[in-house]
Amino acid sequence: MIAAQLMSQDSLPRVPAHPTIASKRESQRRETLPGEQPSRIAAHFQPLDPGIVNDAIPAFFIGRNKEGFWVARDVKGQIGGIFLLEDSAVSFARKNSRPAGCATIFPSERFELDLENKGNPLVEPLGRVMRFIRRPWRRMAGFILKMTEALKRRLRDFDVL
Question: Is there a cis peptide before residue 19, judged by omega within 30 degrees of 0?
Fold first, then answer.
């Protein structure tokens, strides 16, 4: 497994100097819950440095999107998919690189799938449902907070608090 960050136009690829760094990053990545720190980035998928991965070896980026789902995307932009579980994304990468296998790159940044979803077809509708459910809860929490503050102000006026 190779852990590397996505490359922007002006940055060089970075590879951990020691395997324990990669495993530490992997454990930190697994502790992140879906929907936590939803940041959207514009990923620049560039060919990998031949000194890191040979062009003959298929490679896949595997990471999370803004909603916390797992995304697997071929480095060459030929195929990709969205999944509920990390293992499903890795399995997708292995299946689509048979018989030789593939290199897996786990970027530290979140990225979106810019191809047709060839992964779990239920993930996209599930994401829409999750967004729909979250909206009223956020509004309800804001409403409860405002009502609580208003009630506290009223009770202070009556010298109850």
Answer: no
For 32, the token pair is 């992140």
CA angle in degrees (0–180, nearest 5) for 119-95-44: 60
At 160 the pLDDT is 60
Q: Tell me the DSSP string of 48-85.
A: PPTTTS-TTS-EEEEEE-TTS-EEEEETTSS-EEEESS
Q: Please name which of 53, 59, 50, 44 lies closest in space to residue 11, comparing C-alpha atoms.
A: 44
Residues 72 and 139 grouped into a single domain? no
Of 119, 113, 68, 114, give the one whose Cα is nearest residue 95: 119
Strand 103-105 vs strand 59-64: parallel, antiparallel, or unpaired? Answer: parallel
Do 82 and 11 share a domain, yes or no?
yes
**Residue 117 and residue 123 in contact, taking contact as beta carbons nearer than 8 Å:** yes
Q: What range does the domain containing 44 cover?
A: 1-117
What residues in the chain have per-residue pLDDT under 50? Answer: 1-42
Number of domains making up the chain: 2
- pTM exceeds 0.70, yes or no: no
